[in-house]
Amino acid sequence: WEWLEDMATKHKLPSISKAMRCCINCVALEIDDANAKQQHHQPSEKGCCQSSTNNMHEDVDVTKLVGLSREQVIWMESKQNDAVSVVRHCMEMEEFDVFGIIRCKTSIAKCEGAHDAVRNISEKYGKEEVEVKENIDITKDCGC
């Protein structure tokens, strides 16, 4: 949880819950993008659409409560992911890929906090144009 707390502070997020939601959306969309790019889908040994981080965790005492959306809980349950494996996967990624892209289930105009996020990302990474992925749906079936 220390990494989530550090990232929340570093990226001016309001809480570790928001940092966790960023991680879940990042991993979920990364998996969807990878599956969409495969022309001939072959189920892997890990199962369809599962994160490569599954089963990487050791016994961990999870003591923090984080607020997740209904869609994020559904995604984690359907992919048999747990918070530890999602966070570990994000820890291995470039920070920008996790926290420097706005992923919003509605449009950015309707997304509470999106304008602050655009300003924070722009300041942190020195980007005039911030990448935004709108109208995301992490619960949609990948077609497997």
Structure overview:
The protein contains six helices and two strands; from the N terminus they run αααααβαβ. The protein is mainly α and 144 residues long. It has a two-stranded parallel ribbon. Strand 1, helix 6 and strand 2 form a beta-alpha-beta unit. Helix 1 crosses helix 2 and helix 2 packs across helix 4. The chain is globular. About 17% of the residues have low confidence.
What's the structural blueprint in terms of helices and strands?
Layout: H1 2-10, H2 16-37, H3 70-78, H4 83-91, H5 95-99, E1 102-103, H6 114-125, E2 132-133
Parallel strand pairs: 1-2
Helix pairs in contact: 1-2, 2-4
Beta-strand proportion: under 5%
* Unreliable residue runs: 39-62
Count of beta strands:
2
Cα-to-Cα separation, first versus last residue: 33 Å
Shape verdict: globular
**How do the SSEs run, as a string of H and E?**
HHHHHEHE
| Order of strands in the sheet with most strands | 1-2
How many whole angstroms does the radius of gyration measure?
15 Å
Average pLDDT reading: 75
Number of helices: 6
Largest sheet: 2 strands, parallel
Helix proportion = 40-55%
SS class: mainly alpha
Which tags fit this structure?
single chain; 144 residues; mainly alpha; two-stranded parallel ribbon; 6 helices; 3% strand
Describe this structure in a few short sentences.
The chain has 144 residues and is an all-alpha fold. The protein has helices spanning 2-10, 16-37, 70-78, 83-91, 95-99, 114-125, and strands at residues 102-103, 132-133. Helix content is 46%, strand content 3%.
